[in-house]
């Protein structure tokens, strides 16, 4: 069964402004103080928080994320890991991640790991999408923002059959690149 | 491999296969692991793209950046209040500038608090032009024109609170106070991030009409947790 804090995940899914404000007031202070104590600034903490909340949303939306641990621990650990990886890039590997001190429940660890893998896979998808030519990019953008394929075809001035075929080929190209990528084997089961 | 089956995958996901074709395809998926893997990748990429380009995701992104901005600006004010030496610095500055300037500073002027930011409206893929027109008109202070565009948008999206809020601002700027107050009152009944902002500009609208009593009553109801709290308190001191 989902944890009571699933309500914060639902808040992101429903774009519930009031509860999202509550996420900030309850959970942001810890992240801000962590980032500021670790070579970061307040604006960087702000971007980090926004990015992490969006990843959680993406996972909830596309993978039906069910929280089995407190949101506080889950959210903070993701922010912390992500901040270390940002620092590592910034200072070219001169930062070593501080060993996680204190007790972290297994359920939190597992859930954070799952989100990390989800993010990796999303990044891979994002990278292959960027590799596409403009024609494919535009077509995919249109087909996924307009629900009717007939309308897409009309907008592009092509036949319905052509648009449908072209869409499937563009996605096929993406799956080919995904399968050929070095990260694929590690990520394919997630 | 990928290309050969792409159209079949697409038609299956779009539920365009006949009953027989569907059953045959599902059977093949169970028997052929390679095909199954290719299909799962195709499906996952489709889900990824659908989410990437969804309006809901764009709207959430906007809420997050607005809520983050509000949260961090209200934090800054708290930090400022916590440092006592700032008061002595402020006091010395005031002494240097003299009593006259102090009095000047302390007089309420609508223009000091009127909405002065430029706005950026998210472009919707369906009808981008009207959003761009509204944005340009508002930012160049052509408020009457902006209101016309806002009305067009609200016809399509009656619950776009952001547009409603900017319409309220534009109405105050054109002295259409009754209409503005209706808009702000409506916004307060929502749970949107514009709730307290609407309260603030409703108060300001009263003050612009020199209704100091009404303005005071409204501004004093802004909660201490709101980003507008500090500005409201500042005004309350000035009009007291």
Structural overview:
The complex is a heterodimer of chains A (190) and B (240). With 190 residues, chain A is mainly α. Chain A folds into two domains: 6-105; 132-187. Chain A has nine helices and no strands. In chain A, helix 1 (6-14) crosses helix 2 (17-37) and helix 7 (149-156) crosses helix 8. The longest helix of chain A is centred in the middle third of the chain and has 26 residues, at 106-131. The mean pLDDT of chain A is 89. Chain B has 240 residues and is mainly α. Chain B has three domains: 2-52; 55-93; 108-239, Alpha Horseshoe (Serine Threonine Protein Phosphatase 5, Tetratricopeptide repeat), CATH 1.25.40. Helices cover 76% and strands 0% of the residues of chain B. Chain B contains 13 helices and no strands. Chain B has helices spanning 2-13, 19-31, 33-52, 55-82, 85-105, 110-113, 128-139, 143-156, 161-173, 177-188, 195-208, 212-219, 229-239. At the A-B interface, helix 2, helix 3, helix 5, helix 6 and helix 8 of A face helix 1, helix 3 and helix 4 of B.
Short structural summary:
The complex is a heterodimer of chains A (190) and B (240). Chain A is mostly helical and 190 residues long.
Looking at this protein, list some descriptive labels.
heterodimer, A: 190 residues, mainly alpha, 2 domains, 9 helices, 0% strand, B: 240 residues, Serine Threonine Protein Phosphatase 5, Tetratricopeptide repeat, 3 domains
Shape of chain B: elongated
Largest sheet of chain A: none
State the distance separating the first and last CA atoms of chain A: 21 Å
Give Rg of chain A in angstroms.
20 Å
Query: What is the ordering of alpha helices and beta strands of chain B?
Result: HHHHHHHHHHHHH
Largest sheet of chain B: none
Shape verdict of chain A: globular
Mean pLDDT of chain B equals 85
Low-confidence stretches of chain A: none
Structural class label of chain A: mainly alpha
- Overall average residue pLDDT of chain A: 89
Count the beta strands of chain B. Answer: 0
